[in-house]
């Protein structure tokens, strides 16, 4: 492919006219690649940080569930003062009123170890699954973010390449316009050539203005994701050849997707969680058995007597140790247990259906992406053939124009067709990468390693 031979229409417009040059307005550092953008996004994006915090919170389900199987220990201290009055008959036949003051201090420690609590056991197994689910959900959010980053990057790169094409086209059309003016002054062509060149120049200018708005929108979205401003990206290498990439049979990707897709993995965990929830609800019918150990130390002091005087008894200290087994057999809870079990069973059935839907959706996504990749390979072959044909047509039109057999209208049309074929070829190559990223996401392998693979196909900064 000899694209550079026509970028500035040099073959027919040389004629001693200098062409304007375009210098880079940005430093090499200002052309980030995918990995550098991903590193920036990890530190900047609020949605990723929120998902990370949610993952960390979900990991706490495991120690909380485990706590239901471990002993609980409580230490209590109590300081009490009690006053009692009583009427006591006297030997003389009267009644004497007595008062008793009791000061008591008690310190106790109690340990309770569940021995037989099926509800706590199923809650522990459920908590372990919920911790795993939080990790899978974070992976799902991270992968979705990476897919979005790849999409925005490639969309920005498409607009950037089209802007470069329009810039080259504008340069060529501007040179055409100057040449038409010169040849018109020499009486070699009529005014129609100049009008055609001028109209084409204005058309390209208008298209460039419209595309600039689209490119700025893409860069603004990148800024939202990464927190940094960019006006250029590392482009795709000219040497990248999608047809050299080996595609395994479609069923191979389907099987990998059914095992690795984070959506399916999350639904499978939710299915297990729902089953444990049903077991936990049903275990409320079962008895519970706890071991209790209690040790206490009491200090009491008593003052008692009638109105004539009080007697003070010596301080008394008491130590006690109590070990017990507590059995609880649930008999009736107003129907709550039965209702809870029905609810848990229905939710388990719901998750089962959601898992089936996720499997079908993933299978369809993989099949569509796989077929699109194969179609894009064929489209790439077709676009190369079209580009070669337009290149040959442009060369022929150039020679005919120089010989006076063609006018500027045919030259502009041939040049426009060649630039369109160039743009189409670039689009197909980038569409291939976008579809490949969607396939990797469907099988659950759109990770940093894949970003590094994509990054290797970009030009080094």
Query: Any guess at the CATH architecture of the largest domain?
Result: Up-down Bundle
Largest sheet composition: 5 strands, antiparallel
Beta-strand proportion: 15-25%
Number of domains: 2
The third-level CATH topology of the largest domain is Outer membrane efflux proteins (OEP)
Q: Secondary-structure element order, as H and E?
A: HHHHEEHHHHEEEHHH
Distance between the termini: 24 Å
How many individual β-strands? 5
Outline the low-pLDDT stretches: 1-29
CATH class of the largest domain: Mainly Alpha
Helix content: 55-70%
Structure, described:
The protein folds into two domains: 3-15 and 28-69 and 118-286 and 336-456, Outer membrane efflux proteins (OEP); 71-116 and 287-329, no CATH class. Helix 5 (118-185) packs antiparallel against helix 8. Mean pLDDT is 84; it is low at 1-29. Helices cover 61% and strands 16% of the residues. The chain starts with 9 loop residues before the first helix and ends in a 5-residue tail after the last helix. The longest helix is centred in the first third of the chain and has 68 residues, at 118-185. It is an alpha+beta fold.
């Amino acid at each position: 492919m000899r694209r550079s031979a026509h970028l500035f229409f040099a073959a027919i417009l040389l004629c001693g006219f200098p062409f304007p040059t375009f210098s880079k307005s940005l430093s090499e550092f200002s052309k980030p690649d995918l990995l550098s953008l991903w590193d920036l996004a990890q530190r900047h994006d609020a949605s990723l940080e929120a998902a990370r915090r949610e993952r960390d919170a979900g990991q706490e389900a495991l120690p909380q569930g485990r706590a239901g199987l471990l002993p609980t220990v409580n230490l209590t201290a109590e300081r009490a003062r009690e006053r009692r009055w009583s009427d006591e008959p006297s030997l003389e036949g009267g009644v004497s009123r007595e008062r008793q003051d009791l000061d008591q201090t008690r310190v106790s420690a109690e340990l309770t170890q569940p021995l037989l609590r099926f509800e706590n056991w199923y809650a522990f197994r459920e908590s372990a699954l919920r911790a795993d689910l939080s990790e899978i959900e974070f992976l799902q959010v991270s992968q979705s973010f990476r897919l979005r980053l790849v999409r925005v990057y490639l969309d920005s790169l498409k607009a950037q390449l089209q802007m470069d094409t329009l810039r080259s086209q504008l340069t060529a059309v501007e040179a055409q316009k100057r040449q038409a003016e010169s040849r018109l002054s020499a009486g070699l062509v009529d005014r129609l050539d100049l009008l055609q060149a001028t109209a084409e120049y204005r058309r390209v200018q208008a298209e460039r203005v419209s595309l600039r708005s689209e490119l700025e929108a893409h860069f603004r979205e990148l800024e939202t994701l990464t927190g940094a401003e960019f006006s250029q990206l590392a482009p795709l290498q000219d040497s990248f050849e999608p047809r050299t990439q080996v595609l395994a049979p479609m069923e191979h990707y389907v099987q990998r997707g059914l095992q690795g897709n984070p959506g399916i993995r999350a639904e499978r965990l939710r299915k297990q969680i729902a089953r444990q929830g049903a077991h936990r609800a049903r275990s409320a019918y079962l008895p519970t058995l706890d071991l209790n150990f209690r040790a206490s130390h009491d200090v009491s002091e008593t003052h008692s007597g009638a109105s004539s005087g009080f007697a003070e008894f010596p301080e008394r200290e008491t130590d006690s140790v109590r070990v017990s087994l507590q059995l609880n057999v649930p008999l009736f809870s107003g129907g709550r247990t039965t209702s809870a079990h029905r609810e848990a069973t229905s939710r388990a059935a719901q998750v089962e259906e959601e898992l089936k839907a996720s499997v079908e959706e993933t299978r369809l996504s993989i099949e569509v992406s796989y077929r699109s990749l194969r179609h894009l390979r064929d489209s790439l072959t077709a676009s190369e053939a079209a580009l070669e044909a337009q290149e040959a047509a442009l060369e022929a039109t150039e020679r005919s124009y120089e010989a006076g057999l063609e006018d500027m209208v045919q030259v502009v049309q041939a040049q426009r067709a060649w630039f369109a074929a160039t743009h189409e070829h670039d689009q197909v190559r980038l569409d291939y990468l976008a579809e490949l990223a969607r396939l990797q996401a469907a099988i659950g392998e759109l990770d940093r390693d894949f970003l590094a693979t994509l990054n290797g196909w970009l030009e080094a900064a």
